[in-house]
Write a structure and sequence with these properties.
Layout lengths: L2 H18 L4 H8 L3 H8 L7 H10 L9
Length: about 70
């Protein structure tokens, strides 16, 4: 799969989980320590995130990384 397509799909999955968790990006930023700006770039598929950042996001959303892959 093309990298940009993968990042967009990953971002979409994170956004869906965020909605299901009834959180907004500000709350997720607080829980993860990742800036809102960076989170928004991730959710738009515009940022290649580190695996540890992905772990922080899934932990904050109450899920695990396999849900995103």
């Amino acid at each position: 799969m093309e990298e940009s397509k993968f990042l967009k799909q990953l971002g979409l999955k994170i956004r869906c989980l965020l909605i299901m968790a009834e959180l907004d990006s500000k709350q997720l930023a607080t829980k993860t320590g990742i800036t809102r700006s960076t989170l928004n770039k991730i959710m738009r598929g515009q940022s290649n995130l580190a695996i540890l950042s992905l772990k922080k996001i899934t932990d904050a959303l109450g899920t695990d990384m396999k849900e995103l892959l």
